[in-house]
């Protein structure tokens, strides 16, 4: 009965470097012969951490291609830039760049892909044999969600057009959400289950075949400043115990260990994946936390210090430590919402209420089995925009494009909180 259209979003700062060969959440890459694909082939090898990249063979029978990113935002810093790496390489070995090949448009959308504006056109740019980095200011898009699209057009040749390392960041933080490095990768020391508020995520437990980084930022939970939430972490530890840290980027600057952002969750005793232990702790969300989407990182690391001194504090020196032994990092999204929008109020049984269309261009209609008593509409920063009594529809005609939160109270005092998007 409920038919919400959930539009996937990612918090900023943001980076997509194609760590696996799966198409990242929220992206689309076209269909048939005009489709871009994630992987690596011929000269289409990536730049940086992974060879994996997003590429397409452009040739006489397949001259155009298009793809778009997930929606990223809100962009709450004034100095955000958008950048990516690209190269074109001849289809045949040794995959040299072509002198004449065509062009691609770089487009941006602030309405989740309904309309697009050209940021730039890259036209027959001379290749270097290496990746070329393109960077564009997003100063004009502060506080908005943005989606980026690339439209590629071939005019000559048979070549691969490759893209990698899509990134939205502040120049003042050149490596947002930097990853730690493990001497022995994950080995038998992975995280197999996390619970935090409404997040309950189990992940793979194959010793020696589990990546040291898992990106679960498509999994999100709503949390309120000033509230405390339980967290549990489960995982094996092959020889020595493992320390577990949690980090939440409360001030939304791409750095995980500013004051008050680090939490020592505890130590997991040695165990194999089949009998892995679980530790629990609590995280107090500071009243100063910036509202909106941000990232939470869980870092687990096995270490000899913990073995020789079980009471030793964590030996994870930071969320980007370069000297960890073996373990895993999992990233999640947490959406910090004002206290009055607590999801614990969201106690209406599924099917009881329907809000549509979502996204909308102006009117939101509300169908409810129970009579509606009142409504409140908030912007993404948690400010009350409008409120009223019994209502069947709400007009967003005079409101800016973006994400809004609607809280509906029914006659029986049940409360529903939903996100709606105005295009
Ligand atoms: Ca890559
Ligand atoms: Ca895991
Ligand atoms: Ca931070």
UniProtKB/TrEMBL annotation:
Domain GEVED: 244-335
Keywords annotated in UniProt: Signal
Classification via InterPro entries: GEVED, Secre_tail
Name of a matching Pfam family: Por_Secre_tail
Entry annotated with the keyword Transcription: no
Key word Mitochondrion present: no
Secretion system C-terminal sorting domain ranges (all copies): 355-421
TM region positions: none
Signal sequence region: none
Name used for this protein in its record: Uncharacterized protein
